[in-house]
Write a structure and sequence with these properties.
Largest sheet: none
Number of strands: 0
Mean pLDDT: 90
Shape: elongated
Order of helices and strands: HHHHHH
Helix content: over 70%
Structural class: mainly alpha
Low-confidence stretches: none
Length: about 140
């Protein structure tokens, strides 16, 4: 039996760990939003409290959950060197784009920096996974 995969360089592992940490922060943000109590919200600055008053449609919340959990699993898949990382990261990006499309068109956003950064990271991670597949770093 031959092993067609090659050993990835050290920067592959660094990027994969950073991707996992990035997406773990996304999962924590989702869980905080989903399970925040009134006391937790009251302890936030006023502009962050206002964000919790916005009622998003269920599909936007579902897109948020799908984006962060698929992103986390996709990043974890990079670390265990599995090809399905690419599919998970594509699903994550599509969900993130859907979520942000709604937010950009229906909600007054005080800063576009973080949403745009999220979308850029999604594109980068898709490219990174595709590149890792083509170089046989993940199988």
């Amino acid at each position: 039996m031959t092993n067609l995969s090659t050993k990835p360089p050290i920067w592959f592992w660094i990027v994969s760990v950073l991707a996992l940490l990035w997406n773990a922060m996304g999962v924590m943000a989702y869980l905080y939003r989903a399970y925040a109590t009134d006391e937790m919200i009251a302890s936030l600055p006023a502009e962050q409290q206002a964000e919790f008053l916005i009622e998003y449609p269920a599909w936007v919340t579902a897109a948020f959950a799908l984006a962060v959990f698929c992103g986390f699993l996709g990043s974890l898949s990079l670390l265990i060197r599995k090809k399905w990382a690419y599919v998970l990261l594509v699903i994550s990006a599509i969900a993130a784009y859907a979520q942000h499309a709604y937010i950009f068109t229906n909600v007054e956003v005080s800063s576009y920096v973080m949403p745009v950064l999220v979308l850029i990271v999604c594109i980068f991670l898709i490219w990174f996974a595709k590149n890792a597949i083509s170089k046989h770093w993940i199988k």
